[in-house]
Structure formats: structure tokens, C-alpha cells
Predict the structure.
Amino acid sequence: METLLDKHWHHISGKEVSQLLGARDGKGLDQFEAEQRLKHFGENVISGKKAKTGLERFLLQFHQPLVYILLAAGLVTAYLGEWVDSVVILAVVLVNAVVGYIQEAKAVKALDSLSASMSTEAVVVRAGDNLRVLASEVVPGDVVLLRSGDKVPADLRVYSSKELRIDESTLTGESVPVDKSEGSLALETVLAERKCMAYAGTLVSFGQGKGIVVATGNKTEIGRISNLIDSADELETPLTRKITRFSHMLLIAILVLATASFVLGLVRNEPINDIFMAAVALAVGAIPEGLPAAVTIILALGVSRMAERKAIIRKLPAVETLGGTTVICSDKTGTLTENQMTVQEVYSGGIEYQLTGTGYGVEGQLSGGDGKLRKIKHCGNVCVQGCFVMTQR
């Protein structure tokens, strides 16, 4: 099975795909086989790199050259008995770390909530029966039924199509829905032109169809993109590079001045204890204790202003890169979307109703007519036909 899943499915006929994956000519897997494959392949979810724990995120707030200098200064002043200076320096460092940690924790929570809202359901054929299951329970070999408004749960080889069109803008950037057909294609056909394939995360905009799951989770095309993003190196922002360069220059200058003062004291035959105390006092006095706090506060204010505009900033220094951006690259539609259609208004029986809710969320409120609010809960599918006013997010 593992070797089968690496085949070029667009180059194989739908009937052969069904035989290879045990779909039994469209009747689908039996429940036992589906459960075994779920245990073997795991859930149909994209698993990114292991998330950092709260303690790790907090400790990483201290991983800055300037903070290292401040910590060293705080420890040295404590050793010399200058407790007030030591407490002030260490307090500045701690406040800087707490502010950075709180902001990052908020961003992580917001991103987790966004990921949870993307969960959907799918209609699969198992042992000849149509079943509605969570998209996470879909396995290779499952026969999936597609209709208008459905989100494709995994990578599928389409083997039946009735005017099926799929919006693949999230994957290819193509703003126009793509017509799908069941015929096999040449081996060298590029992803954007594989009309017999439907990919995870895309949206069925019109028609109906059936497809056999050929890849799930990280094996899907969108999963591979996620893995590439996770493997990318974390780049420093212009601000962090400048602070790092400034910290190194400051450290060298402090060491040179402290060493020079110590040597000068020795030349003048001053007591060694006095010389050492003077050199340490010079080093501590040259450190800008308020710089990390000032930078953190300024960045936090920037993050707050971005949050008011519904932009999630995970790390404080990232907000500064907006000011240093010279070129912005986007797809040809000029927009970045979640690819979710949302019903906002319904006109029926001469009465107009307003609905709240977001994308594939199953909860919202209905108002109109008598002016009262009513809580509603639906199956999560989004109808794109009829007299609904819809918006693209």
C-alpha cells in the first residue's frame, strides 16, 4: 500500500485506481478495512512540527544577545552587593520576557482556534452505504462524494463527474474554478492542469462527482506545502539583525573599556579590588538597561494596532518587518483567502433574514422578520445555490 500511494494517479484510469486501492468498483471499503487503514496511515490531518511548550517559549524570550549582557550585568552587580542595581536590571529582563511570552501565547491561541475552525465533514461510500464522517477519518481507498459547497477532504482521483468544477485558488492561485473530468492524463501533466484530480482544501463550486482518496494528511499536496514551510529556516528581521550587531559592538566596547581601565589602574599601582570594582562599574554603567524594555513595548504597541485590524502577529519582531518591506508578492488575484463561502442573507416568502457565523462553523444566529435572534446549528455544508447572498473571506 505504501508503494501504491506514490503512483502518478492522474496517469492511471479510474477503474485501475479503484482496483489498486480496493474501492470495489465504487462500493467503497468495508468498515473493518477502513478502521485498519486509519490505524496504519493515521488521521487525515496535517501535522506540523512539534509545537513548543509554554516553558520553552518563555525561555526563548531570553535568547537575545542584549539580554545575555543584561543577565551578566545583573549577576555581577549582585555578586558585588549592589542589590538595588541588580534587582532593577533583572526586573527589566523579566518584564521583557513576560510581555513577549504573553503576546506570543495570544497569537498561538488564535492560530490554534483558526486551525480548529477549518475542520469539516465528508460523505464517503463504505460497503455500498453513504456515510457522513469527519474529514480526519477519511483513509486512502475511500470513495468520496462531492457536491456544490463541499470542501475536498483529501487528494482524490476523480472517476465520475457531472459538470464538476472546483475552486483551486488556495493551491494554485487560479481564480477561475477548474472543470473536472474522469479521463486519465499524460504523465508529465503539471499539477494545475490535472483535471482528473481533486486536492485537499479546495472547494467544490458547482456540480457533483465521485473520487477515490489517494493521499491523506501530510501526503497530500497541501500537506507537502505545509512541510516545506515547517522546514524553512527562520530568518532574522532587520530590527533583530541591527540589535544583534549593536549588542556585539557594545559588548566589544565594554570589554575593551573595562580592560583598559583595569590595566591603567595596574599601571598606577592602585589596589586590585578597587580596580576591579571600577572596571565592573564601568561595564554595568555602559549597558542600556532600558533598551530591551523600550523595544518590547514599542513592538507590543505595533502588534496591538495590527490586532485591531484583525492581523495575527505571532512574534513581536515580525511586526517590524512590515516597515522594512519593499516588495510584496501575492497571487494573481491580489488576495489571500480562506476559501470559505458564508451565507449572510436569506430572502424567503417576502422576508429578508440575516445570518451570522463564519465559513464552515456550525453555529450562528438568525435574525429578521419579527426582529428576534434565534440560535441556529446546521450540518456545516454551505449551499451555493438559491437566493443566498454570499461573501468570500
Remarks:
- The mean pLDDT is 78.
- Residues 54-114+234-321 form one domain.
- The two ends are 38 Å apart (CA to CA).
